Amino acid sequence: MDLGLRGKIAIxxxxxxxxxxxxxxxxxxxxxxxxxCARSAANLEKASAEIRSRTGRxxxxxxxxxxxxxxxQAFVAEVEKRFGRVDICVTxxxxxxxxxxxxxxxxxxRTAVELTLMSTVFFxxxxxxxxxxxxxxxxxxxxSVSVKQPIDNLLxxxxxxxxxxxxxxxxxxxxxxxxxxxxxxCPGYTLTERLGELADHLAKSAxxxxxxxxxxxxxxxxxxxxxxxxxxxxxxxxxxxxxxxYINGVTIxxxxxxxxxxx
Length: 263
Ligand code: NAD
Prior knowledge:
This protein has two domains: about 10-190 and about 230-255, Rossmann fold (3-Layer(aba) Sandwich), CATH 3.40.50; about 190-225, no CATH class. The protein has eight helices and seven strands. The protein has helices at about 20-30, 40-55, 70-85, 105-135, 155-175, 195-205, 210-220, 230-240, and strands at about 10, 35-40, 60-65, 90, 135-140, 180-185, 250-255. Strand 1, helix 1 (about 20-30) and strand 2 form a beta-alpha-beta unit. Nicotinamide-adenine-dinucleotide binds near residues 19, 40, 66 and 95.
């Protein structure tokens, strides 16, 4: 199936590693021009080199923190200047720390709101007016299955990602008539570098092996294993494409059936 992504201009935030990088790679593979950002220039260079060597396509990369609004504004403006427009934007950031309610300070709440909610607002503010001008656009927010089923100890994720989900749903209503769709994608356990490190950390404290920890997570999933980042990226590329023109305002988990609710 031709997704119709050839020549589309796509921004992927927080894309030097993990899910963001896998999404950028998938979009480039489908023929999109990709612009990525993350905090570390060195990691961005590594990701760009990998995308270049695996797809044969150039990548525009900029080191920035997604919580810095001025930097996000400058990045989006630069993408538009280089490529002429912005068609697709995938928002993403690192995850907030796992803690119980009594252990989270007010400052930690504020930091997590900046990282998870405000970074999404920043990209939405910059890309949606540009997409509206072109009468075509795709905004995709990366959240977590925690918006379908809260996860113990992940208070910050459970609370603030629900805000991102409400934002995405409302933007879908406001911008649908402009040829723009807004959808929310929710990874479940997905074997990125970060999840591997988390498994190593838990394995060390439990005196178990990494495989044993991954096995415990896999056992919670009807499909019986954790996902690969490519399995997540495939959905994002589809939703970003011409083929997904009538899918708007939805929240879709890629979790192997982990979330137990009906909807
Ligand atoms: P990761 O740590 O592998 O990658 C995160 C990326 O974000 C990196 O490129 C990092 O440099 C970048 N980043 C982090 N903070 C940033 C900031 N402030 N500004 C700019 N760039 C920043 O993580 P991942 O596994 O790819 O997860 C991506 C998101 O999805 C996270 O929010 C995570 O909590 C969430 N999530 C992941 C899983 C999973 O199993 N991997 C499951 C549910 C939700």
